[in-house]
Amino acid sequence: SCTDQYFYMNNRSKNTDDHNCTDVDKLMQHYYLPVGYAIVFIVDLVGNVTSIGVYLTKIHPWKSSSIIMVNLAITDLLYALCLPYLVYYYSNGNSWVLGDFMCRFIRFGFHFHLYSSILFLTCLAVFRYIVVMNPLRVAQVQQKHWGIIACSAVWLIAAAGLTPMFTILTMENINNKTNCQDFASTSRVDDVRLYSWFLTAFGFILPLVVVFTCYIGIVKKLSKGPITTSPCRIRAQRSTVLILVVFVVCFLPFHIMRALRIETRKMQEPSCMMMHVVNAAYIISRPLAGLNTFFNLALYTLSGDMFKKAFLETYSCKCWMNKARSQVQLAVINCRH
User: 173-217, pLDDT tens digit by residue?
Assistant: First the structure.
């Protein structure tokens, strides 16, 4: 009959699609994610330990921006400490051996870093905006208590907003392996979908609007007025531009691909090829989101806290050469006597 013929052709088409389907996402999980996370881990660990060391030993007194920068570096460092677990997990064929709590904690740590970084960068953009728009309030804005208030608010908001993730995340047994599912791939699709849109709206889109508004305000302010080339204003403009680049390059692709990943899982009968391609793009965006730590390291040099000078004094080749030369001269003098 016509009905039997329809179902036969439909099943044949589906089987052909499944046969031609590629497991590129699985290959990327096994090779791309461990390499990507390992690179981010090395740069993140070395860069942020160095940055925190410079702030603690060389930069005094601290201003509000210094406090925000140190908290941003601490957030990035905590993120780096989670990455070795993910490197081992994906290189070990998606086999999680550390138990349910650690699975939830590591996945929570990834998102806690993501949204804490977004909020810290938003705070910096707002502070820069105030400095440019109200130069007479620079001294007031730079007081330490404003940095403490801003950082306390960020930690509390991020912790409160991400606490539900502990209950949403799941582990699954697939092919005799315990899989620690990432947030967009967990089995509770309906809960994940609603919560993902909540995080995207309030944790990314709203801060993006704030940062973009600050950038537009700074550009307009610097385009007029008698003192448009002051170091403070130029530094504020460059910092805000860099923050906006981080939002667009690192955070935007991740949120778009996470939404697509969840939506394809909600579709009635998505094609095999569509599922794997979307998941592969989502996999690409995850280490990309962690690359914001690279931009944060560049942001420290624009903070106005003499970070660049302090860094060069501590770690420059010239500094070490001078120390080595002085030690050699001292040794020669001792030998002569």
Answer: 887 888 998 999 888 888 899 999 999 999 999 999 999 998 888
DSSP run (H or E) holding 178? strand 177-180
Roughly what angle, to the nearest 10 degrees, separates helices 292-300 and 231-246?
Answer: 170
Query: What are the residues whose beta carbons fall under 8 Å from the beta carbon of 86, sequence distance 6 or more?
Result: 33, 34, 37, 106, 110
Residue 314 is encoded by which pair of tokens? Answer: 């501590």
Pick the CATH number of 23-305 from 1.20.1250.20, 1.20.1070.10, 1.10.10.10, 1.10.260.40: 1.20.1070.10
Q: Could you say which DSSP state residue 269 is in? A: S
Cα–Cα dist 156/92, whole Å = 35
Separation between Cα atoms, residue 5 and residue 3, nearest integer Å: 5
Q: How far apart are CA 5 and CA 96, in angstroms?
A: 45
Terminal CA-CA length for the chain: 110
Contact, 65 vs 72, CB < 8 A?
A: no
Stated pTM of the model: 0.83
